[in-house]
Amino acid sequence: MTKRQTTKAYAEHDRLLHLLSHRCAARCGRPEEDCYGQACYLFMRAASTYTPERGKLSTWVYLHVRNGLVDWGKRNDLPVPMPEGVEPATHVSPARALEIKDWLANLSTECREVATLIINGPAEILEYGPGRAGNQRRIGSKAILRYMVGRGWGWVKARHTLRQLKAAVAEL
User: Fold this and answer.
1) pLDDT category, 99, cuts 50, 70, 90?
2) Alpha-carbon separation of residue 104 from 3, 97, 101, 125, 165 (angstroms)
3) CA-CA distances (angstroms) from residue 74 to 24, 97, 103, 133, 148?
4) Cα(26)–Cα(32) distance, rounded to whole angstroms?
5) Fewest Cβ atoms nearer than 10 Å: which of 105, 130, 148, 162?
6) In whole angstroms, how far apart are CA 145 and each of 50, 129, 136, 149?
7) What Å distances lie between residue 102 and 95, 96, 106, 116, CA to CA?
């Protein structure tokens, strides 16, 4: 694209860049000006790599900028500060432990197996990744699915069990 075409395309896509940067700022906690600057940079990269054979420019820009902002937001996530006087919960009260035990007893056999796997699971299904408070333990559903399929479950059964467990957790 020529400089004149790029300038015209920027004027046409400015609202889109503001929208995407606003969403990114809300998601990752960065100031909107930072996100907008990154969106403009990603727009320039998208404009320089665009070829008309790939489709419309607006689609190419949207996908390139959105995906780039998601990746950038993950790398530049800000931790959320804890309010003063609030300590993070590091233990479970006996009443809550009993409630969880009763909840586990009421689950189906497959859901109970997955829930205990999540609670006491082996290290190979646990993933460590960036979170709002730094390096938090997080369990990915893909890792659980791979683990269950590796243990002989079918994909359909594993997905169905995860859906049931998600509904049960929502009720909890």
Assistant:
1) confident
2) 63, 11, 5, 20, 10
3) 10, 34, 34, 13, 28
4) 8
5) 105
6) 37, 18, 21, 6
7) 11, 10, 6, 13
H/E element, 161:
helix 155-171
Over the stretch 155-166, which tens digit does the pLDDT of each residue have? Answer: 888 888 888 888
Over residues 26-66, the pLDDT tens digits come to 877 788 898 899 999 999 998 888 888 878 888 888 989 99
The alpha carbons of the chain give a radius of gyration, in whole angstroms, of 22
- 20, exposed or middle or buried, with CB in 10 Å at 0-12, 13-18, 19+? buried
Token pair of 95, please?
């009443």
- Coil vs helix vs strand at 152: coil
E strand spans, the chain? 126-131, 134-139
Take residue 11 and report the two structure tokens written for it.
Answer: 């004027």
